[in-house]
Amino acid sequence: MSIKDQLTKLANEKNNPSITIAFNTHRTSPNNQQDAIQLKNLVKQAEERLLSEYDKREIAEILEKLNQLPDELEINKNLESIHIYLSKDTFEFIRTTWPVSNEGVWIDDTFAIRPLIKAMNRNKEYFVLYLTQKGVHLYQALNDSIVREIENEDFPYTESAYNLTHLFTDTDNQSNKLKEFYNQVDKAIQRANPENTLPCLVVATEENYSLLQQVADIPSMYVGSISTDFNSPTQKNEFMKSAWEFMKNSQHEDRAKAIEEMQEAVGKGQVLTDIQEIYQAAIDGRGELLIVHQDFQQPVRMVDDRTFELVSDATEQGVVDDITSNIAWEVLSKKGRAIFTNQEEIKDLGNIVLKTRY
């Protein structure tokens, strides 16, 4: 499940209590040993708050889940931060490559999802299809890291099970069999990605990537390929470096196209630059494309559901620390696009701009 899908699920859930735990983590040993200690301290803090605010019998199931958390944390998978969401219906760990500015425990009837909104917009999730005669593997990746290998009824395709070495023999007779096999792989990827929400980067020779494109039901799902020595499988950390460089370049191109689209929309009177107007258009479902400069944040104090006043201190009581995250979620949840960028061209229009649908 992508971060966006997880975020949608979490945003729509209402349970009392809903517990959010967020803290910064470490990728490598021995520093990641601190993460386990930090989690135990936060679990203790959450337990103390729960027992002071709720009847112990009513939250017995929640307390049991809470006490399982330290055993569930796999510190070797940690990135820059982790977000834990726990209720009677939910038990979620979400790791991101961005640190959180506020660590701690939140207990309410909804989850604290604001930090994830920025993470989602600053991260790139995608699949990596590793296609060689030694095996076919599908990985879900986040930026420069593999989140997990897809292991199901389809993946992985092993050399022994499919006699891949023979299948990839360069003969006319084998070419049709190879296309049939690639069509089978393509359909398996679609089953792993049913909404086509994540792009797929392929690690393969140019010839085999071309064959896959020829038989693909949705060729646009594949954003490109990085080459590999077909007879010598590359280590994951090696091909992920190349994969992330490819995706970063792709992201830069996508952002440049989005800025160009925004600039063209100015002449059509479709662009808002006032943050109050942007917020109202976003909650009304009028936002088609939102672009925010990556360094821009705006704390506000809500006056009512539709209006707010700007403030300078994000730590004041009752202040929304960054309204841009709320705006981004309103746009995304209503089928719009939201981009955080450090490309300076956007500053010609402002730190935050919205292209409206009408």
What does this structure look like?
By secondary structure, the protein is an alpha+beta fold. It has three domains: 3-121, Translation, Eukaryotic Peptide Chain Release Factor Subunit 1, Chain A (2-Layer Sandwich); 125-234, 2-Layer Sandwich (Nucleotidyltransferase, domain 5); 258-356, 60s Ribosomal Protein L30, Chain: A (2-Layer Sandwich). It is built from eleven helices and 16 strands. It has helices at 3-12, 33-53, 60-72, 114-122, 159-162, 164-167, 172-192, 206-215, 236-266, 275-283, 323-333, and strands spanning 18-24, 81-86, 91-96, 104-108, 125-132, 135-142, 145-149, 157-158, 200-203, 222-226, 271-272, 287-293, 300-302, 308-310, 337-341, 352-356. The strands form four sheets. Strands 5, 6, 7, 8, 9 and 10 form a six-stranded mixed beta sheet that branches. Helix 8 (206-215) links the parallel strand 9 and strand 10 (222-226). Helix 2 (33-53) runs antiparallel to helix 3. The model has no long low-confidence stretch (mean pLDDT 87). It holds the Pfam family baeRF_family3. InterPro entries: Bact_RF_family3 (IPR041289).
